[in-house]
Amino acid sequence: MTTCPGIDLHAHTTASDGTYSPTELVDAAADLGLAALAVTDHDTLAGLPEAIAAANARGLELIAGVELSVEDEDGRCHLLGYGLPPDDAQIQETLTVVREKRNARNVRIMQRVRDLGLPITWDDVLRHAGDAGEVIARPHFAAALMEFGVVASIKEGFDKYLGTGKPLYFHKDGLTTSAAIALLHKAGAVAVVAHPGLSKWSDPALLEQRLARLKEHGLDGVEAYYNKHSTPQTHDYLAIADRLSLLVTGGSDFHGAAKVDVFLGDVYEGLPTPAEILIPLKAAIQAAGLRRD
Asked: Which among 2, 199, 224, 253 counts the fewest CB atoms within 10 Å?
């Protein structure tokens, strides 16, 4: 990847299912020369205080974020929240409930592991989670399976066992999309649909209809730039955002060793997200914060 000034607004740490600590992630972003980084762990804000301190020490702009799994009558998707105050009591309380539902799913996964006679234990999964603590996720199961030679990679773990429809897959109850958007807004954050190209609405016509419906519930933006979006998809999604007057964001969805083919700062055609999109995003975050106050 060619290093150049830019930003990455979608990255995970050991607070959820990434393999870099918040400090390690910030250091990697600063070493790449990124102008800004968003930490968007799944269902937790636990990594943000350390990431903010590390970013201040390195002179890197840090956007406090989160990634939520949401669902409505149209189906499931992921929602990114940007501009979150890490100490917001209501969002912390809601995320605690979401994590409890995730933990209930983990219990079902472990029961199925035992039923299938797979050679891993809960302690093995916890060991691979490391500092995650609050969020034990499917990549930690996949890492345990890889350690014991059941699969050769995290990807194979998902392909054979943990992906949708596979033997260790169980649906996780989460927030409705409208409730998640309202929660983020109440906390003074903005709400953005993550990686639409990975969803069942990847077709531009379907996506535009979907985003238009979500905008009625307050949706602020769409992650048009994304590591796995093709160039034509990116152009289509940028055009949709323009027609619907939605913010544009972009990120790599970096997880470290949990996704070995995804690199920090590699968002679009080998480059980071264009830094200029940070200006309207920060303006929207500021406006959301003023509404909260």
From this structure: 2
